[in-house]
Specification:
Elements (H helix, E strand, L loop, with lengths): L2 E5 L2 E4 L4 E8 L8 E6 L6 E6 L6 E3 L7 E6 L4 E6 L8 E8 L5 E3 L3 E6 L1
Parallel strand pairs: 2-11
Antiparallel strand pairs: 1-3, 3-8, 4-5, 4-9, 5-6, 7-8, 9-10, 9-11
């Protein structure tokens, strides 16, 4: 079955960096775009970044442009999110996501990112 496992979260000071990873299994990874979302306390889940199946297309939320970089390794079935110059408002649970077929969205368990100001 489809599985997504995030790692790499933690506590960091403002201005610091973290690298999140999501290892996937159960589907043909190289055929699908991948997404990173986040959800802060009391807020709706929001899309942070996406990457096309081959890695040639990326897109970012305005709030993270120039600070976050999404990448993927199709040989290792892994998608990553490099987060630099972190801000307090980046504090959230970060989720890896894939959309397979019509209406089928799969999520990882999430990884907590906490940024101290």
């Amino acid at each position: 079955q489809v599985q997504l496992v995030e790692s790499g979260g933690g506590l960091v000071q403002a201005g610091g960096s973290l690298r999140l990873s999501c290892e996937v299994s159960g589907f043909t990874f190289s055929s699908y775009a991948m997404y990173w979302y986040r959800q802060a306390p009391g807020k709706e889940r929001e899309l942070v970044a996406l990457i096309g199946s081959s890695g040639g297309i990326t897109n970012y939320a305005d709030s993270v442009k120039g600070r976050f970089t999404i990448s993927r390794d199709n040989a290792k079935n892994t998608v990553s999110l490099q987060m630099n110059n972190l801000k307090f408002e980046d504090t959230a649970v970060y989720y890896c996501n894939v959309r397979i077929g019509v209406g089928n969205m799969y999520w990882g368990q999430g990884t907590q990112v906490s940024v101290s100001s």
